[in-house]
Amino acid sequence: MKANPDFLQNAFSYLPLSSNGLFSLACLLIAFALLDLFFTRAIRFKAVHGLVLLAGSALVVKIAVGEAVLLGRSQGYEPDQPIKFSHRIHAGENKINCVYCHTGVNDSRYAGIPPASLCLNCHNVIRSGTNTGKTEIDKIHQSVDSGTAIRWVKVHTLPDFVYFSHAQHVNVGKIQCKKCHGDVENMGRIQQVSDLSMGWCIQCHRETNVNFDNKYYASYKQHKALESGKISKVTAQDIGGNNCSKCHY
């Protein structure tokens, strides 16, 4: 009989335990089953030991694999920031374009964090916030006056072995910010919406059509196939977007 790890994890879901708690519980059950099987022998039927060992092992493997897959991912990460900055107010209600603050997004790997002096373009005049009054905006002035940078907490972080360019995606690929960052215009405090995993990126490359009107793609051979009707579209995958060396080199 083969135990279904999904069924087993659902069977334990009513317990007020985290994955760590379930993992510990499964290990204890395995230990008790082995102890009773070889030493105490309180349970007469060995099939019970086998069932406990099989079920416990399946649950341990399920949790271990799941946690390993999630290692290093920060989906849902929403840290406190040194200033209570609201994207809902700035990008949503006031319709400030993302590029006004994140100036590197079209020409650089990094979107960039705006200096406090850029904030003063508006906040030299606007000295009181909608929700927070003067306290939070005063922090901007204190930063500029003292020459001390605001230490924002980075939310979206890729591993060091991954190459990612905002310019390639936003400027050349014409990808909208919300494709990766979610509905920022309705976020008070920024949160990581996507898991930013390799599988997530690869799936996007498989599905996303490339705009071949961009001069960047002028030399690509797919132009002839498009003109002849041999193909109807070109995805990022078709032009090497899923080659390992594109992101890891």
Q: Short description, anyone?
A:
The chain is mainly alpha-helical.
Structural account:
This protein is an all-alpha fold and 249 residues long. The chain folds into two domains: 5-70; 87-247, no CATH class. 47% of the residues lie in helices and 0% in strands. It has helices at 5-11, 19-40, 46-70, 87-93, 98-101, 116-123, 135-146, 166-172, 177-181, 198-207, 222-228, 244-247. α1 (5-11) packs across α3 (46-70) and α6 crosses α7. The chain starts with a helix and ends with a helix.
Q: What is the percentage of strand-forming residues?
A: under 5%
**Shape designation:** flat
Find the count of extended strands (DSSP E, 2+ residues). Answer: 0
Outline the biggest β-sheet.
none
Assign a percent range to the helix content: 40-55%
Radius of gyration: 26 Å
Low-confidence stretches: none
Report the structural category: mainly alpha
Give, in order, the helices and strands: HHHHHHHHHHHH
Q: How many domain regions?
A: 2
| Alpha plus pi helix count | 12
What's the overall average pLDDT, rounded?
90
For the termini, the CA-CA separation is: 45 Å
